Amino acid sequence: MAVVGRPRRSCLAVPGSSVKMLGKAQGLPADQVFLDLEDAVAPLAKADARKNVVAALNEGDWAGKTRAVRVNDLTTPWTYRDVIDVVEGAGANLDCVMLPKVQDAVQVQWLDLTLTQLEKTLGLQVGRIGIEAQIENAAGLVNVDAIAASPRVETIVFGPADFMASINMRSLAVGGLIPDYPGDPYHYILMRILMAARMHDKQAIDGPFLQIRDVDAFREAAKRSAALGFDGKWVLHPGQIDAANEVYSPDQADYDHAELILDAYEHYTSAAGGMLGAVMLGDEMIDEASRKMALVIAAKGRAAGMRRTSTFTPPG
Ligand code: GLV
Ligand code: MG
């Protein structure tokens, strides 16, 4: 079914150590920003990055964007301080905490409990800060069903760079194809993540594409996960944003067709329409399963602010 959630077609990575980029990101048309305290920030810059991120969340104009902060993973000494400083400092202006390199459900439960403590202390509604769980190693993928089950988890995010490194996968282009491998090396991983996400009605987000100057190659990589049903993809550069927003929205013809199917099926199944469960719409046979597929596309189109350009007129 269509997963309703915060918009995340394009998820822009913004290094927390760069005040300049924290400012610039606010004017870009990404659905989501995630202010990074993890791999884009050098160890010696982590403490200042926390302060930059808190200031940017409180003082910046993020209107219309989903606001996330990526903390460091739980094998480091930084995670608890990241969470406490950012949520205490800017919890009211934050939508989600992203936890990278999640290995099992216990790690997500730790974050859930810690956020609950902070929300209670700060007088915030308990549960209002969501979790984004990044799957970046074999343990995370093997345990992804349990990770996705946590009620606070809003989305499962693929981290291809760390994932490749962790399983010794050979690749020249992260997010691209491996020259010596005939298929798509990410297919299984993406589908595994998608199954866990959908089982628990969560969003599934594809990770970064590192060749930031090659927007055509980015678009091809994005189309692969969009075709499977992923809801969005990370963008590392402003030049990738429009392509992501476009690829993870239905095109106008598909959106119009989905709305047409919904109207037509509602008509034909009604008493006035003959109470028909399977019916021809033009050259296409539609039934209840067609309605379900149309609902997914219509929900994505509506969420992207699309407007239909045709209407259904009952025959007769
Ligand atoms: C993202 O975090 C990645 O490792 O690809
Ligand atoms: Mg990573």
From TrEMBL:
Pfam families: HpcH_HpaI. One of its GO terms (molecular function) is lyase activity. Substrate binds at residues 70, 136. Coiled coil: none annotated. The keyword Cytoplasm does not apply. Keywords: Lyase, Magnesium, Metal-binding. InterPro entries: Aldolase/citrate-lyase_domain, Citrate_lyase_beta/mcl1/mcl2, Pyrv/PenolPyrv_kinase-like_dom, Pyrv_kinase-like_dom_sf. Mg(2+) binds at residues 136, 162. Its cofactor is Mg(2+). GO terms for biological process: oxaloacetate metabolic process. Residues 9-238 form the HpcH/HpaI aldolase/citrate lyase domain. This is CoA ester lyase.
